[in-house]
Amino acid sequence: MSNISPIVLGNWKMNGLRAEGDALVRDLLRGLAGHPGPGMVGVCPPATLLTTMSDLLAESDVALGGQDCAVESQGAFTGDVSAPMLRDAGCQFTLVGHSERRHGHGESDALVKAKAEAAFNAGLDVVLCIGETEAQQEAGETVAVLDRQLAGSLPEGASSDNLIVAYEPVWAIGTGKTPTIDDIASTHAHLRGKLKSLVSTGADLPILYGGSVKAANAGDILAIDHVDGALVGGASLKADEFLAIVKAGQSAKAA
Q1: Is there a domain that residue 24 lies in?
Q2: What is the distance of C-alpha 191 from the center of its chain?
Q3: Which is nearest to 202 in space by CA: 230, 161, 167, 160?
Q4: Does residue 21 lie in a domain region?
Q5: Set 98, 100, 226, 241: catalytic member
Q6: How far apart are CA 139 and CA 248, in angstroms?
Q7: Taking the C-alpha atoms of 151, 207, 172 and 169 in order, what is their torsion angle to the nearest 10 degrees?
Q8: Does residue 98 carry a catalytic annotation?
Q9: How many other CB atoms are found less than 10 A from the CB of residue 238?
Q10: Is residue 3 part of a domain?
Q11: pLDDT > 60? residue 2
Q12: Annotated catalytic residue: which of 100, 117, 168, 241?
């Protein structure tokens, strides 16, 4: 996993049929060819599109990721997708612990950790998602929640070479709301200190921000210290918007 910032990853969630995914990736590749720059760009399509997207991305520098993986590598687990399957489909990395898994599917820190370790075992890098709910944020529990999630979810063997942490305040995902620049800065500074205490290469381990990131705010967010990139949701479904975020990140980190 590249730790050259900015790292901009698009999470398509449960969106996109084959024709839509094909058009989106082709537009993305055309845009990136015209404006190459430093950093890393990746996309996380739904599992049904991974093999198709892998073929389209094969000659590019755009990384392919899964949105989640099972703990088990194979077996009687109807509907699950294993880490070796993601690897076989062409993925270089996978998300784990997204709030829509933690809160929508009741996934515990221990389960998220086990999934991350399964991904490592399959040769995948991991984007570990953490974040507080609106109730927790209003109660002043953000730091405590993030510390607890990091301590409980951090996989064995984690390093700046195979792990990215993505901070996504749950209340900001898909709502149009974002924390203030000062709040993002203080939270990411805290996470940097925490990662230094937990991982030997924590000083270099990339930390992304996610939660209603769009072209209009990406430059300001990605210019913040210890914000090494963005995990983008809805805006990654529009090639022009996603490309604008990539370019804003490149400009912010070059400044």
Answers
A1: no
A2: 16
A3: 160
A4: no
A5: 98
A6: 33
A7: 10
A8: yes
A9: 15
A10: no
A11: no
A12: 168
Strand 163-167 with 63-66, pairing: unpaired
Cis-peptide, bond into residue 6, ω within 30° of zero = yes
Candidates 169, 189, 150; CA nearest to 231 is 169
The per-residue pLDDT for range 76-114, each reduced to its tens digit, is 999 999 999 999 999 999 999 999 999 999 999 999 999
Range list of β-strands (E), 2-86? 7-11, 40-44, 63-66
Radius of gyration of the chain, Cα coordinates, nearest whole angstrom: 17
pLDDT of residue 219: 96
Catalytic residue list contains 190: no
- Domain with 82, as residue range(s), is 33-176+186-204
**Is 138 among the domain residues?**
yes
- Based on the structure, what is the number of domains in the chain? 1
One-letter amino acid of 75: G
Sequence-ordered list of residues with C-beta below 8 angstroms from that of 124, at least 6 positions apart, any chain = 66, 69, 83, 86, 87, 91, 92, 93, 94
